[in-house]
Amino acid sequence: MTRSVLWVLAAVGLAPAPSPRPRLVVVITVDQLRPDYLDRYRPQLQGGLRLLLREGAVFRDAYQDHAVTETAPGHSTILSGRWPAHTGIIANTVGVLDSTAPLIGLAGPILPIGRAKQSVYWYQSGYFTTSRYYGDSLPLWVRAFNARRLPFEEAGAVWNLLLPARDYPEPDSVPYENGGAGFMFPHHLPADSAQAAVALAGIPTMDSLTLAFALEGTRALRLGGRGATDLLAVSLSTTDAIGHAFGPDSREIHDQILRLDRYLGTFLQQLFVRYGTGNVLVVLTADHGVTPYPERSRALGRRDAVRVIPDSLIASANAALDRRAGGRDWLQFDTGMLLLADRPRLAAQGVNVDSVIADLAGQLRGLPGVARVDRPADLAAQDTTDAVVRRWIHQVPPDAGVELVVTLKPYSIWTYPPPNPPIAMHGQPTDADAHVPLILMGPEIRRGTYDRRVSTVDIAPTLARLLGLTPAEPLDGRVLAEALAAGN
Ligand SMILES: [Zn+2]
């Protein structure tokens, strides 16, 4: 689940480039975009997704090849070329949130795109803003965009189907969707404009607004106009919001993907008009996939699909430690990782930490839905052709205080207690959550379909090769040379 607002735009000066290099690199990350959507809805695609599938290098076996398939770790691999084990961004809540850099003019969490102080903007409650890390004020073009109050004018707006209802094979009336309320078309935004600006993040129009803002940014910042390659990174979050609320097999996600396709078509067309098709390099990928909600999976015969909530187990372990070693939350559990912040201090209080952890591992193994529980140190020597082993090795830094890693069975999900648990969820080292699209399109890219297994950490080294850049630190990915024109 995306717990944070997301960045939408990063303009980074890369290097002076001779003419064959693109003027603009556009990296589009669609939150929770499963690659099977592109197959499922392909006959109805006619915009940007169709163009990328037809003209691009399409890697059909691409993964966010780490274990905690959440938004922050997923995004972090794409332009760094490094695993969470090497960046320290191991969950939405670990290694990401920075309380020293509040948003400008608004309250809300931040999720930085990187350390370079470039132009980086988020959507929050009706406005695009940045954090104090990146600047002390908003530039004129952002203030002018906000002054149009487009999100607030969506008050009372209706989300209806793009195509006739007969073109959607999915049933619309599925009472489990969206927590049992508002699970059928048409969907309505609140009549109150401030509430509508918040709720906008859950309907397709949000992606169109984000792309309009990104286009405005390319104009205002004159990207690609200084004889060097510029980078535009755009994150589109609505697919994640709709996927969590309605699930990956819903009529709502179907309509979202069709609209996303049209929005991307317009967006890319405008970039091609401005820069020329031969001057734009496009990358499309996702930060993770998603697992269907267990209630639906059970109805389809996967009887052991369950929601797993380890909270009470962790709470009683903490209570037992408090009685022995003093009051604090020694153990924390986050999306399959059991973290112990201060092992030496606990040991100094006379606690046999290994035995506490082993005991907890046994209890976690006993939870319905749990497939395996491992100590990260034990995984290092295991067979990395096992995707679960490999993804945990890519996930956990040795010094992060992760004592145990817990993997669920396919079709089971981590969840939260009421009132607002997500319907569908991601975060597991399963293929449903880790499999993502990876498409490159542009100059020096050989169009076609590629079946070799690749990963999102391969994107950064590939871009570096195309742009003639030498990475400043060792990267985990490899250059996707099979998709590059000869001579690269
Ligand atoms: Zn999510």
Would you give an account of this structure?
The structure is a single chain. The chain is α/β, with parallel strands linked by helices. The protein has 2 domains: 7-293 and 430-483, Alkaline Phosphatase, subunit A (3-Layer(aba) Sandwich); 307-414, Gyrase A, domain 2. 33% of the residues lie in helices and 18% in strands. The protein contains 17 helices and 18 strands. Strands 1, 2, 3, 4, 5, 8, 9, 16, 17 and 18 form a 10-stranded mixed β-sheet that branches. The chain has a 4-stranded antiparallel β-sheet with strand order 11-12-14-13. β4 and β5 (127-129) form a beta hairpin. It is globular and about 70 Å long. Residues 1-8 have low confidence and may be disordered. The structure holds zinc ion. Zinc ion (ZN) binds at residues 1-2, 32, 71, 240, 244, 426.
